[in-house]
Request: fold
Amino acid sequence: MTILEELKKAFKSGEKERLSVLRMLQAAIQNKEIELGKKESGLSEEEIRQVTAKEIKKCKKAIEQFKQGGRDDLATQYGREILILEEFL
Reply:
């Protein structure tokens, strides 16, 4: 299962939240490729896992902040995003 395959499936099935999360992850991976100068060869699986873990960490921080601000709806949304991202660890 690759991110691109899952992105295409989410697009075809109309899963907007999943599509959004996968696009965000793909963009983060592309940014890391550019940062490391690996645009042509791409990242290794370990590097992709690191990028994914970093995105999960960002979501967890956001959940903490939203809970402190009384925005449980947004905290729940980020919780669902984490579940999607964890599939790629």
Q: What stands out?
A: Residues 3-86 form a domain with the Hypothetical Protein Yqey; Chain: A; domain1 fold (CATH 1.10.1510.10). The two ends are 12 Å apart (CA to CA). The longest helix spans residues 45-68.
